[in-house]
Amino acid sequence: MRIGVLALQGDFAEHVQMLRQLKVEAIEVRLPAHLDGLDGLIMPGGESTTFAKLALRFGLIQPLQQFAASGKAMWGTCAGLIFMAKDVGRDQPTLGVMDITVKRNAFGRQVDSFITPLVIAGLDKGTYDAVFIRAPLIETVGDNVIVLSTLLDGTIVAARENNMLATSFHPELTRDLRLHAFFLTMCQHRQ
Length: 191
Ligand code: GLN
Fold this sequence. Notes:
It is a single chain. This protein is of the alpha/beta class. The chain has one domain (2-188): Class I glutamine amidotransferase (GATase) domain (Rossmann fold), CATH 3.40.50.880. It has helices at 12-21, 48-57, 61-69, 79-84, 178-188, and strands spanning 2-6, 25-29, 40-43, 73-77, 85-87, 98-103, 114-118, 128-132, 137-141, 146-150, 156-161, 164-167. The strands form 3 sheets. It has a 7-stranded mixed β-sheet. A 3-stranded mixed β-sheet has the order 5-6-9. β1, α1 and β2 form a beta-alpha-beta unit.
């Protein structure tokens, strides 16, 4: 399997490392041609406004939208989630491929970062220690979106819509490979 990681900015290298630990080919994506022949794409944490600017400059907006529309698996973590969302509540360009509304920086500033155990639907073997860094929350989800995880107060932090997976937190900053493995099963079963 060949999985791409959007490598314009942010912590793409950590995703690449985790994919290699799972013995799949990991490709850094910076140009439209790098999407050719991929079975799935991860968009990492970073700064979503910077993603938008660079994706526009490198002609990636439409190819990324087409990738999502083709039914291939796409996973956004933190800034990547924001970049996938239809609505971020302000005038900020996104791919608009996933039917969720998102609130950026919903848990405060960098110093307010935290790690918390989550129950995530589809993951067995207990809770998952999730790393939140200036993270977004998912405010509302469309009819086809399945909520996979919430905080204890009900805040939505992981969701799936067909071939698209979104997590508010950073699975690439843990040693837990379960969510990456879960994403690989989505890549195998193209929607
Ligand atoms: N706060 C960032 C944004 O709005 C996301 C932070 C992250 O990816 N850790 O894009």
